[in-house]
Every structure is written in structure tokens, then in C-alpha cells.
Specification:
Strand content: over 45%
Shape: elongated
Helix content: 10-25%
Number of helices: 2
Structural class: mainly beta
Length: 246
Amino acid sequence: MVSSFANYDIFSSPRSGRARVLRRLRCHWLLEPAILCAILAVLVSGAQAADLGDYQEPGFEPPAAPGSIWTGPYLGVETGASQTVTDVTAGGKSKDLSRVDAAFGLFGGYNWQVSRIVLGVEGGATYLGGREKGTHPTLGTVETGAKWTASAKARAGIPLSNFMPYLSAGLAATEHSLKANGKERTSFSVGPVIGGGLEVAFRDNWRLRADYTLTGIIDDKANYGGTSVERASGNQRFMIGVSRAF
């Protein structure tokens, strides 16, 4: 396994390929606030409509204890859009390769209610998509991409009735490959992962969420057919998930 976490700083170092990867991710539509807000608004309005449809007279059944709907284990599935950007540098020339794919995965975790805050841990595995092919000024045809990632994160949220905005941070192990100069390298690297989203709790322990995740994949240098090549890669994805609490 190749671990790039020790020297990984995709969130800093403005003169590096990591910074170019982050800028490319920032300018993509997945990060547009208007789109994110619109999707969250649809989730909120849908949840409100569902609650109105199941309305009962106040006091018909005892109210649940505050925050109790968020505690305990849960398991779910998710699907959405994923973008992986890889900056390839060789011979003083750089090339960004970006690929957007459908993504899907599994996730599960456990929540604790601590005063007015929900704290939790979550693990998941996600298919990110295929590989992108392009032409590098020095290397000619190159092909690169990340197919899957597995993460372990800590979460913190603020429950507002049956809604909970949250933030998350942790580590992710991600597969990444680069083919150049007739040589291919596949690495399994560990990098930082941060994110956030909004979760909505329904009846019968079902939950719906919109989740955004940014992952630092790899930052290394290796020899490809006699040429020294640097690669820096990151991924972002916006996912809609459904889970069941137990």
C-alpha cells in the first residue's frame, strides 16, 4: 500500500499540483451553493409534506424524548455524482484530467446524543467511477482515475426536531491509478476526508440525507518509462442517501 497522508496537503501549498486540483474541484458545479441549497430545499419541503400527510391531533401519542430519534446504530445506501481530478506533472508541464461519474455506496454508523449535540462515527465504501484519458504535453497519452474509496469519519450534528445539519471529518483509503509512457501504477493511499450535509428523520426509523464529501486521494512522484512524473489527485461527490436506524 502507498500511503500519502504524511505529506498530503491538498488544502494548502498554493504553488503545488494539489492546489490546482482543489481549484478545479472548487469551480465545478458540484460546489455551486445555489444547487446545493435547491436540493436541500426539496428535501425539507418533502419532509414537511410527509409530516402533514400523517398529522394527528396533539397529544394522541406521547412525544419522543428530545434527540432520541438520532441515537443508536444505522445502515444505509447512497447514490449521486462524483468528480475526480488528477494533476499530472512531467518535464515542467502540467495537465489536469477530470472525470465526472455516477457514484453509489454503502454506509453505516452509530450516534450518541450529548446535550444538544449529536456525535457519531461512520464508515462507508463508495464506487467513484472509471478512468479519464487525455494528452499530456510531455508524456503523450495518459489515463488516470480512482475507482473506489473506503472511509472512517467522525460526525457532529445539531438536531432541530426531525432535521439535523452535520459536519464530518476523518480518513479515507482510496484506489488510484495512472498509466503513462507505457507503464501503469495502481496505489492504495490514505488521505483526509471532510464533508457535511443535512439529514431528515421520518417515521419508522427511516432517514433521508444530502451529503457532500471532499477527499484528498494521493500526492506522489514516481518513474514512468524513464520519466519522473508527479501526480496529485482529489475527489468530491454529492450523494443522496437513505438509511434505517435500529
